């Protein structure tokens, strides 16, 4: 049997919830698989092969398009709760009873909803460049960046994922080269699908009373990763997530924007692999949450 | 030649700046040594052997008492700038021209001053449980915790370094056992020395205009580590450091207080060793700082 990787894993399909889900599966089988949840307008081809293949060394990696995205059938729902329910149906249709879940950007919002709706299904969570319900988007430049035009359409992702520094932009070009090296690519996301994702974001970030309270129910060991200056989902949201999740480690990378883990793929793979394989953060069932101390005044004023 | 460790390394002395500095040196020689800067009221015996011996596997470790502390002669100055100058004199007296510097709590404040005063001497910085000049201490419970009485004097350090959760307190007891296992211990810090350290803290945290501006001059790759709920130096200060240093990675540990790295010594040693040995964050001289984007509103109001 051929050992597949990011570039060679065939696209397969499975039915669940009336949706035909496209997915790819590769890496070291036999342990708890790691299910990747993609960002706004992204398909399976938008992941960085340095990250997926890096993690595939010690983990089985599962990429998929959620309902209505690219080669998966169905419609994109207008809430992350529904996207989470679809993801759970997909995971269960594969016959899996325990997975690790990685979510990037709105994929991290879906990942949180998966953990809330199916706590027994999820062993550990990795949340990259994301935020909680009620996320503070005040300083986000997302609308402006996605609305702009670029010399090459792919340069949009340099603006989204990388900082303006020469070293970050150079890392961005290397990422694009890795990203674009697969030949049989997924179809791009439709305008209708992107609109539904945008609508879900709008609902998710609406302010609400005690909007972070439900985070205490996500008891899985969690690794939160973000860039120091995320202009899509502002970095303070990872800080808020870390303070409100009972068992979360936070890592922020320097000089980095939304695609922090694509800028430092080796470092990320090493840290994520250690997080997934070690028991430093204990197991969900046994963790006693820390006393929730008051927020520092600097932060509590606004949240 | 015997290979020494935390428990067996002899206390040696060296003169500089008119001070007789006590120090211990062990671990893997031949590379860039790692110089440890201790917290309020701490001596060389206050470090966690799991951390020092862990890092000594790949690095030469240098512990010392700064001027006026424990077995070192002289007086404790009443500013971290002066403590930094003394530390630089000590390092140079050892004949070293390049070191990595780790600072914990007020030792992290000294470490920053070392990097500012002697940028060419410092290769990389590790800042644990600390804050910048002008640190936000509004929610610190330091005064109350240090003023309280405890069944055993050592239990003070459970309150300082560990969270109230059963798992953190258990980690704290294991730390105390490690810490107290050396027989020929340094004298405790005098009341006079502690008072001078307290005075230095008072000056350091005084609000001032553009108090974070000088941080952009600390261009060394930096690793910042703190607990999720540091009640001595509030955790938000690491977030502020990360945002203002040009090349800093931030790691926050869950359910952890001031002594976060004593709660997760294996994880810390692994991450710190990787930081010191890899080039993920590049070299100081070549780094182009990221564009400094505006603070999120949530944070900018207060700083």
Task: Summarize the structure in words.
Chains A, B: One of its GO terms (molecular function) is hydrolase activity. Chains A, B: Keywords: Hydrolase. Two copies of one chain form a homodimer. Chain A has one domain (12-299): 3-Layer(aba) Sandwich (Rossmann fold). Chain A is built from eleven helices and eight strands. Chain A has helices at 49-56, 80-93, 106-117, 142-147, 155-161, 166-179, 191-204, 236-244, 260-263, 265-277, 297-300; strands spanning 12-16, 19-27, 34-37, 60-64, 99-104, 122-128, 222-227, 248-253. The first copy, chain A, has an eight-stranded mixed β-sheet with strand order 1-2-4-3-5-6-7-8, with helices on both faces. Chain A is globular and about 45 Å long. Chains A and B meet through helix 6, helix 8, strand 8, helix 10 and helix 11 of A and helix 6, helix 8, strand 8, helix 10 and helix 11 of B. Strand 8 of chain A pairs antiparallel with strand 8 (248-253) of chain B.
